[in-house]
Design a protein that fits this description.
about 10% strand; Double Stranded RNA Binding Domain; single chain; 3 strands; mainly alpha; Ribonuclease iii, N-terminal Endonuclease Domain, Chain A; about 230 residues
Length: about 230
């Protein structure tokens, strides 16, 4: 797909188009193509840090009343995989990613991990091509509304505690968590965790075991409330 369309969508024109191409290249493609040696893994590593810095700066500026702990929780809620995937889908980023044949056939263009990683790589590519100001503007453009509408109800929710309190009071049970899978490179692990709670079970994902357990607990809570 024409990369000019993507540049238009992010309101940024690359000086070095090779950076954009690298940010959109999955390892499966570089492994299958002799002329392409780089993929987005290194850029994704950098983009993760750039995103955290930009979001942190915005939060500190816009919420001077927040404590360090509140800022940390707010930042975590804004840089997690689900938010990255939402932004990536808004940009149609999956259509631009270069995938190997096997990854293409297995639905790689809609895989959450690929969308999230390619979004981080795109942020890093903008950072390297246009420096921090350009990357900051990109993050502000797509994360700004969420940052402006941060509320303690959204980021200060401990689903694990709420689930345990509900189970103990209503069912006299405790939730049982089980790690199903750990995947991804060392710097960007993806954890998949299952929780069994009374008559329901749910599966959560996250970049840490704790985050995956919170995701699973939140889903289980929604199911139990409906019962």
């Amino acid at each position: 797909m024409e990369l000019l369309n993507l540049e238009h969508s992010i309101s940024y024109k690359f000086k070095a188009s090779s950076l954009l191409e690298e940010a959109l290249t999955h390892q499966s493609y570089s492994n299958e193509t002799d002329t392409v040696k780089k993929n987005y893994e290194r850029l994704e590593f950098l983009g993760d840090a750039v995103l955290e810095l930009a979001v942190t700066e915005m939060l500190v500026k816009r919420y001077p009343q927040m404590s360090e702990g509140e800022l940390s929780k707010a930042r975590s809620s804004l840089v997690k995989e689900s938010i990255l995937v939402t932004v990536a889908k808004k940009l149609g980023l999956g259509d631009y990613v270069r995938l190997g044949k096997g990854e293409e056939k297995s639905g790689g263009r809609t895989r959450k991990s690929i969308l999230a990683c390619s979004m981080e790589a795109l942020i890093a590519a903008v950072y390297l091509d246009g420096q921090y100001t350009a990357a900051y503007d990109l993050v502000d453009r797509f994360w700004g509304d969420a940052i402006n509408n941060v509320s303690s109800d959204e980021f200060d929710t401990d689903y694990k505690t709420k689930l345990q309190e509900l189970l103990q009071s209503k069912y006299k049970e405790v939730p049982l968590y089980k790690t199903l899978k750990v995947a991804g490179p060392a710097h960007k692990r993806i954890f998949r965790v299952k929780v069994e709670a009374a008559d329901v079970s749910s599966i959560g994902e996250g970049n840490s075991k704790k985050e995956a357990e919170q995701d699973a607990a939140g889903k289980a809570l929604k199911l139990l409330i409906k019962l």
